[in-house]
User: Fold this.
Amino acid sequence: MKILFFAKGEDNPHWLRALQHQLPDADIRLWDEKETDAAWQADYALVWKPPVEFFHGQHGLKAIINLGAGVDSILALQSRPADVPLLKLRDAGMAQWILDYVRYGLLHFGRDFDHYRQDQVAKHWHPREIGSRRDWPLGILGAGAIGAVVAETLASEGYPVRCWSRTPKQLDGVESFAGPGQLADFLDGCRGLISILPATRETRYLIGDDQLSRMQADGVVISCGRGEVFDEQALADRLRYGRLRGALLDVFHQEPLPATSELWGLKNLIITPHIAAPTPIVTAVEQIAGYIAQIENGEPVSLVDPALGY
Ligand code: GLV
Assistant:
């Protein structure tokens, strides 16, 4: 079996070693523009943000496997052969990273670390009462493989949790809202809004000023799906004028976030450079080997639906 690999910005040698270990009989090659060999036709393409030339001359692919959860970049790549089934990593260890990231944001604001940071600057000793998690209704945007873990775990830890997704979900301890018609009810009274949504036709600019105005005035936003879900200007304005307490953002419309972005200067905003959930290589490789075995055995696999965008 032949596998062609390319992962932009990743530790490619590490990936290749892990793949070869998991699939010892496979012929695995790192894509290299200069060394294209027309006679070498891959069965599987394993990719993260490949260049347009990656698919040139590859006519025998059985599947393309996206080495991350979000498929926005691979769907946007014009040269992707649209007739080849597309798969993506589902959780594969990323849910735990995202959960950690979300917890960090909830602790930061929920335990008043934002206020203590300001107190420190003012050399002000001011203990605050610890609030109850029950006073932090959380809205989780996105209830797929990752969002479901986040929602159920936070609910089990005492937060009132609701989720919003395209179709209704049944998750332990979580109130489910679905579709555009239930978005306003979902947002009403949320104190923490956590987005794990992918960027799709339906989710781009989903959350603007009107939507944010439905949250509690001291609400916080944690965004670790795709930045396009938010109207960044509306979010920035609310943060600047104190109509939101704070935000923890990992993803943005433009990445890297340009130095000219006003977001850098907002004191109640914590910015991280899209690090909430790097793909964990070992668990990802196990999932990839599982996908390949299913396809080779003619078993059904869960495919990405390009029309839905995930
Ligand atoms: C990361 O952004 C991913 O989509 O996996």
In short: Residues 94-110 form the longest helix (17 residues). The mean pLDDT is 97. Residues 25 and 229 are 42 Å apart (CA to CA).
